[in-house]
Amino acid sequence: MLPDKAVMNYSRFFTAVSAARKPSPIRIITELQQRSPPSVISLAGGAPNPDTFPFHSATVKVKNGASIVLDETTMKRALQYSASSGIPELLSWMKTLQRNLHNPPTASNSVAGGQMDICVTTGSQEGLSKTFEMLVTPGDNVLLDAPTYSGTLAALQPLGCNIINVPSDQFGMIPGALREILSRWDPADAKKPGSTVPRVLYTIPNGGNPTGASMTAERKADVYQLAREYDFLIIEDDPYYFLQFQKPWAPTFLSMDVDGRVIRTDSFSKILSSGLRIGFVTGPKPLVDRVVLHIQASTMHTSTFTQLMVSQLLHGWGQEGFLNHVDGVVEFYRKQRDAMLSSADRWLKDLADWHTPAAGMFLWIRLKGVADTQRLISEKALEKEVLLIPGGVFNIDSSAPSPFVRAAFSLSTPEQIDEAFKRLASLIKEAL
Ligand SMILES: Cc1ncc(COP(=O)(O)O)c(C=O)c1O
Question: Which atom, in ligand 1's list, is nearest to the CA of 127?
Answer without folding.
Answer: 9
